[in-house]
Amino acid sequence: MTDLPTDQPAALDAGLDPAMASLLAAAAEAVAPVLPAADPLVPGDPQPATEHVTGLFAGAAVANLSGGRTGRIAVLVGEDLVEALKSSPLGSLELAAAVQPALDAAAAVLGAGADAARQIDLELVEAELGTDLYAVPLIGMTISGALLVPAALLAAAAGVEVPASEVVDVVEAAVVTEVETVEVETVDAAAPTETAPGAPAPAAPSSTLFPSARLRPIAGGRGIEMLHGVEMEVTVELGRTRMPVRDLLALAPGAVLELDRAAGSPADLLVNGRLIARGEVVVVDEDFGLRVTEIINDESAAS
């Protein structure tokens, strides 16, 4: 992973205080390795988020901050991740759960904790976070996501007092009505390049993506591999029963419930509410465990 430029040119050109830019870059650095993606992610330059940014992505999740810091932060993700979650072999998975570690990592850098993430419609991002936002693109082979942090929250976390009129001043040039996909051409740095006589030398590549209209993710359809690091809650179920409310209200210590499972029958292993395996309950270092004896496919699950 390459380091961001220490001078943060795009952020400073946009009026972002150096302390705020450094903090936002650090938050994005923490997010990059834990956001599900098919390729390793590298943060781009912090920059103002115009009203067009949310339209460049396919999903959004927000989290309230806690632990002495108030406000909300958000992570935007591209179509690749949204489609991979929908088509998971374990059934449709929740975007909020998949990006919770990313929101936790960003919140920790901002000196706070993150509450449980919530998936929201992209159109509601401004209503949730406000209009004065800064974004950091998260870049792999394509733009895979972006971290959004309100300017006021960023200033508070950085200990910077910024007049309200100067929090974000998005120049008219950054507001566009039409966005085109950015195509990246790989160039061999060792290969000589031809320059026409009198023409200026080609500019060095930059990680700057200002204005934010360039934050367009490109769906690559790289499938399930981006979900390999996503943690899921796994449940082992011994059995179930149904009871009328009067019996539930009458429960007391010592009551015994009869389940719909015979003694010695295998327990069910469920992920995201979906049955994927069965097995025997065992004891592992004084804790319960499950020895898997059967993997459930769609046909056996229906029987």
Question: Can you tell me about this structure?
Answer:
By secondary structure, the protein is an alpha+beta fold. It has two domains: 9-184 and 208-227, Chemotaxis protein chec, CATH 3.40.1550; 234-302, Roll (Surface presentation of antigens (SPOA)), CATH 2.30.330. The chain has helices spanning 9-13, 18-31, 79-86, 95-109, 125-129, 151-158, 245-249, 298-302; strands spanning 42-43, 47-48, 59-66, 72-77, 113-114, 118-120, 133-139, 143-150, 234-237, 267-271, 274-284, 287-295. A hairpin with a 3-residue loop joins strand 7 (133-139) and strand 8. The radius of gyration is 25 Å and the shape is elongated.
The gist of it:
Helix content is 21%, strand content 22%. It has eight helices and twelve strands.
The name CATH uses for the topology of the largest domain is Chemotaxis protein chec
The tally of structural domains comes to 2
How far the N terminus sits from the C terminus, by CA atoms, comes to 49 Å
CATH classification class of the largest domain: Alpha Beta
Got a strand count? 12
Mean pLDDT: 76
The whole-angstrom Rg is 25 Å
How would you classify the helix and strand content by structural class?
alpha+beta
Q: Give the overall shape.
A: elongated
Sheet with the most strands, sense and barrel status: 8 strands, antiparallel
- String of helices and strands: HHEEEEHHEEHEEHEHEEEH
**Beta-strand residue fraction:** 15-25%
Can you tell me the residue ranges where pLDDT is under 50 for at least 5 consecutive residues? 1-13, 164-193, 200-221
